Amino acid sequence: MTDTDQPNNESIDQPVAEPEAPAVAELQEQLAQAQAQAAEYLDQARRATADLSNGRKRMQREMDDVRASASERVLERLLPVVDDVERAFANVPADQVDSDWVNGFRMIQRKLWSLLETEGVTTVPAAGLPFDPAIHYAITHEEAEGFEDGQIIAEVAPGYRLNDKVLRPAMVRVAKGA
To answer: By the 8 A CB rule, do 166 and 134 touch?
Structure first.
């Protein structure tokens, strides 16, 4: 064996130098940074989820408001029709009260009221009650026997509510003190 054929014992006996390992403190710092970044990302994800949820809720509320507003406008436009039907029945000639024609219109009137009630429309009470400017509209203030100051003498036109909102205040005559 020649010198070149013999293994180099010197390289076998010497320990192989490992790459320098990062210090424990440096690894802990990297871990802390990674945990902080993960917490920030988690916070951002939670905020984005909350924003999306709030946006959906807001859009649903706005859609409900638009529907309610449209329904309210249609119901307000029906109120004069209801008034006209009521006036027509108040003026039916005595000999026509029980006619088939009048009874047919009474059925239409009942259906109209049924529709209004289904939507939440009710009448505003008036006659004999104290005047309330939130639900009544005073067209006259007059002296009247047997009525206290501020008491409603008579209802001139009915008022209507849609659930808790006044669609149209009742038009009333109000008693005033002497």
So the answer is: yes
Number of domains in the chain: 1
pTM: 0.60
User: Parallel, antiparallel, or unpaired: how do β-strands 152-157 and 159-162 relate?
Assistant: unpaired
* Interval 46-63: pLDDT, tens: 999 999 999 999 999 988
89 within a domain of the structure (yes/no)? no
Rg of the Cα atoms in the chain: 42
Residue 23 lies in a domain: no
- Label residue 144 left, alpha or beta by phi (over 0 means left) and psi (-120 to 50 means alpha): beta
- What 3-state class would DSSP assign to 20? coil
Q: Is residue 138 part of a domain?
A: yes
Closest listed residue to residue 156, CA positions, set 173, 135, 176, 175? 173
Q: Is residue 93 situated within a structural domain?
A: no
- 66-75 core/surface letters (b: 16 or more CB in 10 A; e: else): eeeeeebeeb
166 vs 15 pLDDT, higher one: 166
